[in-house]
């Protein structure tokens, strides 16, 4: 085996371009030091805010942005994503060896990577963690990201054993991974928190309490979690056992739960926050300030329509709902933060080929807002179902201020344009996740962002057995098109199959795309090196520092 950066076939060479932006096609935002005073401040403490606490921090089970934010700053995988959105060695000491057929990856681990208890991070910790995530008893919502690995899906679905899975610790510092087919995005995938290591003895000792508190975790990243006061606040402190601790300047990062923009802006203006998220009127009010920044995201927010609901199972009614919502007005009236109205599912910025984004290659969907058409479709759907009027629909969302205003806008649009009665059910994030995963909703708000830069990462959500296919939508042609895209031997075929699949998705409307997310912030100019990726974790703080 030799260290290959080139995979022989033309199609795989082109697919390699997908890796170049790794976790999102857009560039992350960073307050770089350009002139001025670059002398470090005496106190290296950063003050941040989140609108929720992490529901839980077991990397095998986490599936939300807040949890991912904590994990990527306190843990580390074989690779990590750098400020240029490129996968770079982390616990792995170098790029992996790749076999000539592209099916076998061999990772060589750093000999001085340690857990926060001083014990070494080994290849066995990765093998154990990956197989634990795939164990059907774990019920990991992110198990699908491992399916490139030989027999991973078979084990996860009860058709093979853990020993059959193509991941093996050859020794303490060598991990061999066998894939089903060449997957140039694999080095980027192993930077996702689901691929982080876990120390078996520690996990088993903690049992059901593992990852439920800050002292029920071991950390191998630049920081350790501490002072976790549920629903209120938590902190990171520098991890002196981290292999690259000499290059970590911050001593502490404080996090407070701030659910509304007004409170965040007030805390920022009072000097109690160094960065705060803005939307709505506050985004407009502060847009021209020197300390205002906007990040163009790589994620889509959308409305989910439960297919287990007889009323919403009717295609004409789903299309009526999609046609009734004025998404452009929503971005202009509610968000005001640079987000774009969405009519397709895959957001701008996701790579299509070596020269163009996916949206540039396959085209965009146009606005479908038409209240008159929506009313006609609704009536036709009611007639087909033998109903005189529509039932009241429950709308599930979490309890942040922005999502409250989002749900109220959708509620009013559907009332005004269709006469529908919508009952909004706002829940804390943990309860929201439990209910949406249990299919306990009629309508629900959801978002999906790029953990790695591939349109399939978005489109795979809607496969019949996809764990994030919350509405339980199923379309055999859609499934077949994505399988054809996955096995395509040239980039044009791959893109065309994905385009056809997305057209079916939008035509069938098990979801209504609402907007492609952007983020507006107030961001102190003395905060340097703090990275806001286009999607996924809110911030990467390893390289951050404070200047005078």
3D architecture notes:
- The protein is α+β, with helices and mostly antiparallel strands.
- The protein is built from 18 helices and 21 strands.
- It has helices at residues 10-15, 65-74, 123-134, 152-156, 186-189, 200-206, 261-269, 280-286, 310-313, 315-324, 327-335, 358-362, 371-385, 401-418, 429-437, 455-459, 476-486, 491-508; strands at residues 29-30, 45-50, 79-81, 87-89, 97-98, 104-108, 167-171, 174-178, 223-229, 233-238, 252-257, 275-278, 292-305, 340-341, 393-398, 422-427, 443-449, 511-523, 527-528, 531-532, 545-546.
- The strands form six sheets. Strands 12, 13, 14, 15, 16, 17 and 18 form a seven-stranded mixed sheet that branches.
- A hairpin with a 3-residue loop joins strand 9 and strand 10 (233-238).
- It starts with 9 loop residues before the first helix and ends with a strand.
- It holds the Pfam family SBP_bac_5.
- Residues 1-22 form the signal peptide.
- One of its GO terms (cellular component) is ATP-binding cassette (ABC) transporter complex.
**Radius of gyration, CA atoms, in whole angstroms:** 23 Å
> What's the domain count?
2
At the first level of CATH, what is the class of the largest domain?
Alpha Beta
Percent in strands = 15-25%
Largest sheet, strands/sense/barrel: 7 strands, mixed
GO cellular component, one term: outer membrane-bounded periplasmic space
Main location: other
Protein name: Oligopeptide transport system substrate-binding protein
Keywords: Peptide transport, Protein transport, Signal, Transport
């Amino acid at each position: 085996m030799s260290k290959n950066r080139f995979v022989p076939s033309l199609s795989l060479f082109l697919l390699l371009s997908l890796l170049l932006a790794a976790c999102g096609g857009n560039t992350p935002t960073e307050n770089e030091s350009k002139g001025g005073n670059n002398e470090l401040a005496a106190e290296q403490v950063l003050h941040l805010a989140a609108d929720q606490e992490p529901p839980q921090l077991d990397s095998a089970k986490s599936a939300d942005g807040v949890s991912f934010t904590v994990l990527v700053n306190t843990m580390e995988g074989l690779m990590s994503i750098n400020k240029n959105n490129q996968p770079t060695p982390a616990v792995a000491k170098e790029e992996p060896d790749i076999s000539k057929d592209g099916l076998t990856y061999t990772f060589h681990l750093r000999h001085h990577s340690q857990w926060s208890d001083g014990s070494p991070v080994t290849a066995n910790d990765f093998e154990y963690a990956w197989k634990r995530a795939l164990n059907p008893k774990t019920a990991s919502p992110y198990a699908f990201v491992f399916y490139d690995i030989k027999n991973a899906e078979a084990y996860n679905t009860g058709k093979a054993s853990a020993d059959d899975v193509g991941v093996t610790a050859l020794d303490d510092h060598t991990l061999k991974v066998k894939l089903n087919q060449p997957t140039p995005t694999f080095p980027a995938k192993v930077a996702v928190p689901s691929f982080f290591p876990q120390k078996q003895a520690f996990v088993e000792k903690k049992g059901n309490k593992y990852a439920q508190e800050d002292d029920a975790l071991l950390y191998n990243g630049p920081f350790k979690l501490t002072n976790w006061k549920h629903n209120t606040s938590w902190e990171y402190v520098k991890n002196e056992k981290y292999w690259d601790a000499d290059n970590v300047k911050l001593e502490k990062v404080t996090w407070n739960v701030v659910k509304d923009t007004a409170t965040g802006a007030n805390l920022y203006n009072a000097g109690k926050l160094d960065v705060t998220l803005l939307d709505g009127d506050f985004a407009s009010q502060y847009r021209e300030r020197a300390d205002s920044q906007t990040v163009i995201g790589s994620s889509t927010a959308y409305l989910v329509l439960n297919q287990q609901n007889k009323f919403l199972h009717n295609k004409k009614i789903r299309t009526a709902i999609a046609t009734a919502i004025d998404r452009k007005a929503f971005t202009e009236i509610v968000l005001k933060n640079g987000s774009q109205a969405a009519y397709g599912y895959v957001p701008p910025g996701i790579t299509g080929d070596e020269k163009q984004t996916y949206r540039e290659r396959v085209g965009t969907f146009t606005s479908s807002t038409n209240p008159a058409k929506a009313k006609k479709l609704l009536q036709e759907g009611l007639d087909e179902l033998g109903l005189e009027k529509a039932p009241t629909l429950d709308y599930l969302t979490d309890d942040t201020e922005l999502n409250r205003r989002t749900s109220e806008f959708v509620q009013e649009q559907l009332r005004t344009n269709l006469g529908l009665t919508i009952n909004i059910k706002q829940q804390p994030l943990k309860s929201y996740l439990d209910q949406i995963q249990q299919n306990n909703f009629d309508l629900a708000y959801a978002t999906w962002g790029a953990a790695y830069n591939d349109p399939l990462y978005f489109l795979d959500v809607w496969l019949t057995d996809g764990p994030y296919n919350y509405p339980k939508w199923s379309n055999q042609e859609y499934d077949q098109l994505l399988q054809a895209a996955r096995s395509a031997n040239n980039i044009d075929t791959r893109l065309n199959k994905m385009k056809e699949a997305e057209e079916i998705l939008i035509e069938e409307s098990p979801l209504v795309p609402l907007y492609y997310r952007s983020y507006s912030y107030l961001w102190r100019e003395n905060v340097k090196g703090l990275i806001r990726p286009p999607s996924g974790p809110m911030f990467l703080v390893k390289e951050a520092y404070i200047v005078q």
